Amino acid sequence: MRIVLILLLFLAGCEGVWNDPYGESTRRGMTLYSSFIDRPKHLDPVQSYTEDEAKFTQQVYEPLLQYHYLKRPYELIPLTAVEVPKAREIEGGRFTVYDIRIRPGVMYQPHPAFVEKNLKLDPSQVKSLKSPYQLPLGTRELVADDYIYQIKRLAHPRLHSPIGGHMNEYIVGLPEFGKTLKAADKGGWLDLREFRLEGVERVDSHSFRIKVRGSYPQFVYWLAMPFFAPVPWEAEQFFAQPGMVEKNFTLDWWPVGTGAYMLTENNPNSRMVLERNPNYRGEPYPSQGEPDDAEKGLLADAGKTIPFVDRVVFSREKEGIPYWNKFLQGYYDSSGIGSDQFDQAVRMSIEGETGVTPEMEERGIRLSTSVATSIGYVAFNWDDSVVGGQKGGESAERARKLRQAISIAFDVEEQINIFANGRGIAAQGPVAPGIFGYREGRDGINPVVYDWVDGKPQRKSLEVARKLLAEAGYPNGRDARTGQPLVLYLDTVSRGPGDKAAFDWYRRQFEKLSIQLEIRTTDWNRFQEKIRKGATQLFRLGWNADYPDPENFLFLLYGPQSRAKNQGENASNYRNPEYDALFERMKNMPNSSERQKIIDRMVEIARRDAPWIWGSHGKEYSLRHSWLANDKPNNMARNNIKYLKVDTEKRAALRAAWNKPILWPLGLILLALVASAVPAVVSYRRRERMAARPA
Amino acid sequence: MLAYIIRRMLYAIPILIGVNLITFLLFFVVNTPDDMARMQLGNKRVTPEAIEKWKVDHGYDKPMTTIFYEKSVKLFVFEFGAAEDGRDIANEIATRMWPSLALAVPVFLVGLAVNITFAMFMAFFRATYLDFWGVVMCVAMMSISTLFYIIGGQYVASKVWHLVPISGFDSGLEAAKFLVLPAVIGVVAGIGSGGRWYRTLFLEEMSRDYVRTARAKGLAESAVLFRHVLKNAMIPILTGAVVVIPLLFMGSLLSESFFGIPGLGSYTIDAIQAQDFAVVRSMVFIGSLLYIAGLLLTDLSYTVVDPRIKLE
User: Is B44 on the interface with A (CB under 8 A)?
Assistant: First the structure.
């Protein structure tokens, strides 16, 4: 008993926060705390493509261009380039040339690759290293050759760039360059400086030129992605030394860039740490934005030099519950909202306005929302004999009416409310909000599915859908010729028993028209295979924009992009000659009223043909603590950390207030254990004193 | 004894080949090399040429038998190669093994001690209300899902009482504060099934003649239990305990995942989700090797606790 009391007194004497998951070393300066779910697969800018990876690569690597942090619609601005390059057509439009000039004086982060003697390390030296940063560090100025080197890496025989195939179609000489490299590759470091790439030419130390086949106005958007970030040749040579791969020291895991941050701790199983790049030149915080940005405090730091944050600690959180609780305890500065936490975090007023719950408000937590530049949809396979549009004539007309009827009956608004907590807006066509070509209000509704009533879109009645269904030859959901019920098949990926409610809801949408829906679930691989082979009827799919241009959405319905025929991105295999011809014209045009007109016509064709049930554009909700400033959602880029600011004193004070250890339950548990042992001890002593055991 | 050990090690070779073959076939039925390439390259803008290039670079463009041979033989000399993301598997295993052990060893040792103590307590007070409520408690505890213990433990100890971090990990002594809660939960979650199992063993031993003889000669009940019953119950205890010792390296999937411990437990499941055959193959190989080693160790331990047993 005395021990218990001493222990309790000892514990009571301990002050401070006990459940802080971070060590003392991370608390120096201004540190931002964030998380990641899946370990990044690649941090090499030529191979990395996912958002999980972009949150690291885009802080380290600097492509030529970036998106304005505050302005919407998204606007490209120079990053290391002096200006956004203008396309210049040559040889009568056969080629387009981009002349690019980069800023002088941009320096690389400190890195051992820039110290000459580190390029000839002894394997035993490598073996003893725990981090490449244990070696002497150096730097050098960014030059045009570094961009050229990276563009050449798109064709590297041992690197697998997701856009390599796509760029082969545009950058002049890239496919041939790939073949040359393949022939020259003998393993080890392949010095790409020794091979000439026709379409990329060095002008001087800070200028170069890219030659693109035909006209491809969207090419500039690629220049804002890490695929076109500079890679110094020294880094490749450094990491190609014997023993490096075995220690996981590769360019794929230790990025070398000119950005605001450098990756100093790389443990993708647990923790990744970015620290301020001491050689970073600094950048002024933007002084312009959207009209309400000033009111939201997003312009308070206008003109100040960024970055503000010294260090970013990313902890791996695979499970939602610990992640959410740590955010509430103040150990993460911002958080997304999972379905399980939605009701705890967000309340909706009767008028439909969203805000945080009183519990969140009490903690000073704020909510940001933004509509994602993405679309989720249900596609009809154009090659299918029942719902497709291939046959032509009367048959095609019947299938079109069937698709339109289903599109009306499929209540997307209800789906958003039930399965996404209202986080989304119903899509009216293929183009997402915030993208040129998207129309708001009355002009933007899909007249096949909606009417404009009382200043808002209203889904057409089921009567209209049933009439269309009858005209399609399926009165009351039965084939007028055979009398057989209409049975349709939806292919989808199953993620477990939790999907049952969604599948039941899908069936109910079709039952409204007395159509039987069979849901065929499978794994992701088989699902993709079915789509590739065109062995589907209906299926669920989605698309996230690569860049903010309507071409990046409208090409999803472009005939030559057919998945079944050409392995393209048109998964529904939709084909309409007029749409395809308009797409050809639209894709190479700058944004203008003429381009808008063409897009309007294309969207009109697509709405009428209804190759998709248009589905929804997701709405992203994120929460941030009161000590985090300058946080604005950006769907196009992830290089936002350099703009963020943390009030570390406020955070420390609130964390301490929210996480005071409660000790009395420990004492109670100890007392309970001691108390529960008493009867046993008494009973034991009694039995030991007994003369003999009872029979 | 040595001949026995060598013979058992030789038996292991066909078993390991068989396990490898089954893993290979199962994996390739679900994930073709094309699927693996698509998973690694992403799902956007992947051209057939890019898929072919990936397959050639990773050696998946050859006939299945060649792939099996090339990928499997090296495992027998512990050359695991690189994961599909380029990271060296041996290095990963060597790094992730320690966090797994840091959690699994205390849970195993403390759990074993607690379970045996609790079981002996119930056996000592057999047929009394203490035994009855002990068994009721065991049944109740073993009926509760491990996930409940984890989520409940995190909620109470970290969210409500603020005593330990909910999740995370650090190196050195700093790791202790992250391991306390998962270790306590691991031990508590095992008391139900462990306590009942050992109680059954002890009760069976206690019905034997030598126990009656010990009591008849006037030994205290504690001496009967600890000096005689425990010793004679060692063989079934060892059967259950020694076989899992090598598998402690493999870690705990659920605990590591919820507590953010970067061990080997989640390494395999991450690899399955990422369709990383190189890692799956290596982890299954190591798992089967450790299991075989565990069985061998169990047999050897019999000779230690029971001199009558001879391995020939």
Answer: yes
User: If we measure between CA atoms, which residue out of A252, A221, A245 comes closest to residue A45?
Assistant: A252
Q: Is B266 on the interface with A (CB under 8 A)?
A: yes
Q: Considering only alpha carbons, which residue of chain A is nearest residue B167?
A: A322
Q: How crowded is the C-beta side of A387, counted as CA atoms within 13 Å? A: 29
Count CB neighbours of A107 within 10 A: 16
Contact B91 A247 (CB under 8 A): yes
Check residue A15 and give its pLDDT: 55
In this prediction the pTM is 0.90
Q: Are A258 and A175 in contact (CB under 8 A)?
A: no
Contact with chain B for residue A246, Cβ under 8 A: yes
φ, ψ of residue A382 to 5 degrees: the values are -65, -25
Q: How far is the C-alpha of A60 from the C-alpha of A258, rounded, in Å?
A: 6
> Position of tokens 């010095």?
A191
Distance from CA of A399 to the nearest CA of B (A): 29
Q: Do B166 and A23 touch (CB under 8 A)?
A: no
As a whole number of angstroms, the distance between CA A387 and CA A538 comes to 8
Q: Distance from A629 to chain B by nearest Cα, in Å?
A: 26
* AA letter at A633: P
A19 to chain B, minimum CA–CA distance in Å?
4
Bridge pairing between strands A612-624 and A334-336: antiparallel
State pLDDT tens for residues B2-15. 888 899 889 999 99
Of the CA atoms within 13 Å of residue A355, those in its CB half-sphere come to 11
Q: Which residues contact B122 (CB under 8 A, 6 or more apart)?
A: B130, B131, B134, B135, B195, B199
Q: Are B124 and A683 in contact (CB under 8 A)?
A: no
Residue A243 phi/psi, 5° resolution?
A: 95, -15
B159: chain A residues, CB-CB within 8 Å: 325, 328-329
Q: Which of A20, A162, A318 sits opposite B42 (nearest CB)?
A: A162
Determine, for residues B57 and A157 on separate chains, whether the beta-carbon distance falls below 8 Å.
Answer: yes
Q: Which of A51, A199, A167, A198 is nearest to A634 (CA)?
A: A51
**Quick count: other Cβ atoms within 10 Å of Cβ A215?**
16
A157·B53 Cβ contact <8 A: yes
Give Cβ neighbours of residue A679 (< 8 Å, ≥ 6 apart): B130
Q: How far is B163 from chain A (nearest CA, A)?
A: 5
Residue B9, min C-alpha distance to chain A (Å) = 29
Contact at CB, B90 and A246, closer than 8 angstroms: yes
Task: Name the residue among B50, B125, B220 with its Cβ closest to that of A680.
Answer: B125
Distances (CA, A) of B110 to A360, B105, B117, B251: 40, 8, 10, 16
* Residue A695, pLDDT above cutoff 60: no
Which is nearest to B64 in space by CA: B91, B33, B88, B42?
Answer: B33
DSSP A473-519: T-GGGB-TTT-PBPEEEEEEE--SGGGHHHHHHHHHHHHTTT-EEEE
Residue B84: list chain A partners with CB under 8 A. 41
Q: Are A550 and A563 in contact (CB under 8 A)?
A: no
The reported pLDDT for the residue numbered A495 is 79
Which residues of chain B make contact with A326, given a CB cutoff of 8 A?
165-167
Say yes or no: B35 contacts chain A, CB-CB below 8 A.
yes
Per-residue pLDDT averaged across A644-648, rounded? 96
CA A393 to chain centroid, in Å, comes to 42
pLDDT digits (tens, 9 = 90+) for B23-76: 888 888 778 888 888 888 877 788 888 888 888 888 889 888 898 888 888 888
Backbone angles phi, psi at A517, to 5 degrees: -110, 125
Q: Please state the ipTM of this predicted complex.
A: 0.88
Alpha-carbon distance of A228 to B190, in angstroms, equals 54
